[in-house]
Amino acid sequence: MSTAPSTEPSTGHARRPEDERLGLGPTVGYGVQHILAMFGGVIAVPIIIGGAAGLDPVQSAVLVACGLFVSGLATLLQTLGLPFFGSQLPLVQGTSFASVSTMIAIVGDDGTDGLRTVYGAVLVAALVGLLITPFFAKVVRLFPPVVTGSIITVIGLSLMPVATGWITGRETVTVAGATVPNPAFASLPNIALAAFTFLVVIVASRIRAVSRLSVLLGLVVGTVVALALGLSGFSAVGRSSVLALPTPFAFGAPLFEIGAIVSMVIVVLVIMVETTADILAVGEVVETEVDSRRVGDGLRADMAASLLAPVFNSFPATAFAQNVGLVALTGIRSRFAVAAGGALLLLLGLSPIASAVFSAIPQPVLGGAGIVLFGTVAASGIRTLATVEYRNTNNMVIVAASVAFGLVPVVSPDFWENFPAWFSTIFHSGISSAAIVAVLLNLFFNVLGAGRPAPSIVAAGPPVLVQTGEIRILSSGEVLGPDSYEPVEAKPGTRVREE
């Protein structure tokens, strides 16, 4: 009598749901599905940063290839695991969107030198994250939902100018050394192409069978239409090799600047909070035990991949939340299926010609899909903020101030221009500004001091009417008459009964 392959984990514990083996065909098939669900996100970040650094299509293809390669390695480490590294859960690792706005701020107008500064900051920040993992339980208390929700909301909102910039193009171009207005700026064909891509994403989101591939479908269909209209080409594809190992530090040795490092450390803390949430969430979905040691192993894998990423020209890694949703939707809990997807990412990362194909996606197409993609990030933050308690707290002030500070560099990019370089680098990033303000205000209102202070009128939010037996009471404590909105005096003995 034949027996199924053992699914006992190396720790010797009882059989776990995530250790299920599905057979070669289903394992590869479900792995491909996981990669398709997150592919748009994993290639978007290197394309965004490549555009900010002014890279040509071939150089952007290198960034995309390296992003796929590192994501594959990180996914294999997270799912299969090594001693002290990897949660051994079905988690897909990809480049974190939380780092995008900060990296754009660091790159600035410095081109590849700015990119090298990004890599230096990621190296140091990831090392800090790796070292503090054993003590992260103390740090994570600084990031309750009121803080993380504000930060994630700002991340999505601060990326909107990137999406619109892809659609309109640059206002000026350089011709023969002179800066002149760009005749193609905000051209109707580009806006129409972006609008068409946006509609494809929206319609695909409505179709349940392909809803999780809506962004990828929008990119594919939009690019095909652009090719048909002569608005795109694949010239860079012919100049790329079929197979090549990523070149370490292909853009030069990393540069280290204190302001950039401080900003990236803040980003890494946010990434660690997100990864912790994803590990706990997928544990609930899979119905498996996730203890503090397993969370720590998952975070160490996250930070180890982020530490390796700059060496291979990539950016901080994190667990992709959309794939947690895919596990819940499909019921496929095997970590080996996700590992198969990681192996596929690794292979794609070794093929620059495949990456060049993705890098050839026209910017208006990216912009049309980016509006939905970045808006989804903001919506995720708003969803987190919906879980926050606002009544009888000052959380409304925390959200208002942190979001406002986070949007200052978005609406006024030169606001911090006259401050010291290290200061402007930190606060020129919306995510850094929002994180610093949110953490400090949360400490001030919710952590420090004996007792909780009375909320301000701003924090109380709009008045809430409570209907009682004979009078009505606002959440502010103001007493209203039974038939009017005029304040009345509650006489002794007045019956007050909430209904």
TrEMBL record:
Query: Which superkingdom?
Result: Bacteria
Please tell me whether the keyword Cytoplasm is annotated for this protein. Answer: no
Q: Which residue ranges run through the membrane?
A: 35-55, 62-85, 118-137, 142-164, 184-204, 216-237, 249-273, 336-359, 365-385, 397-416, 422-445
Where does it localize? Cell membrane
Topological type in the membrane = Multi-pass membrane protein
Q: Which UniProt keywords apply?
A: Cell membrane, Membrane, Transmembrane, Transmembrane helix, Transport
One of its Pfam families is: Xan_ur_permease
Q: Give the Polar residues compositional bias ranges.
A: 1-10
Spell out the InterPro entries in the cross-references: NCS2, UacT-like, Xan_ur_permease
Which residues does the annotated region (Disordered) include? 1-22
The protein's predominant localisation is membrane
Recorded hits in PROSITE patterns, A to Z, give: XANTH_URACIL_PERMASE
Provide the family line.
Belongs to the nucleobase:cation symporter-2 (NCS2) (TC 2.A.40) family.
Name assigned to this protein: Nucleobase:cation symporter-2 family protein
Source organism per entry reads Pseudonocardia spirodelae
